[in-house]
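Quick one - first record:
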Amino acid sequence: MKTLLVLCVSLVSAMAVANDEQYEVSEETYTTEQAPADVVSDLVDICKDWAQGDNIAEGEQYSYVLECVNQELKLQGFDSVGQVSL
C-alpha cells in the first residue's frame, strides 16, 4: 500500500514539474511586436469615443485613452505604447 502511495505521489510530482517546465519554455518564446501606426490611430479614435460615452472628464481623457489603447493592443498581441496623440 505504501508503495502505491509513493508511486502516486511521485507521478503527481513529475507531472507538476513537467507542467512548470512547459510553461517556462512557452513564456520565454512569447514575443510581441510594435503595432502599425494605423492600428494605434484607429484604437485612439475608438477609445476617445468610449471616453466620451463614459463621460470621462476632459482632464482625465488622455490617461483613459492611453490605458484603453494599451489594453486593446495587448489583446491583439502588440507591445504597449508610451504615449498617444489625441
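second record:
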Amino acid sequence: MRSSSVSSTREACLIHITRTFDALRTRDEEEAETPNATGGLLADPYIRLIFGMCIFFALGSFFIDNIFFAQIENHLTHQESTSWFLGYL
C-alpha cells in the first residue's frame, strides 16, 4: 500500500514538473531551442534523466522488497511466526 502511494506521488510530481517546465523558459531560450523543439518532451536530456532515475528507483525498490520477503520466507517457516513478524513492520 505504501509503495503504491509513493509511486503515485512520484508520478504526480513528474507530471507537474514536466507541465510547468515550459513556464520556466524565457522567450530568448525558446527562440534558441526552436530547431530542437520537434523532438517533444523526451528530447530534453534532463527530462530523460528524471524519468530514467524514477524507473531505476522503482525497479530497485521492487527487487529489494522481493529479496527481503524471500529471506523472511526462508527464516520464518510457520505462518504464525511470519504473520507476527509482518505485523510489527
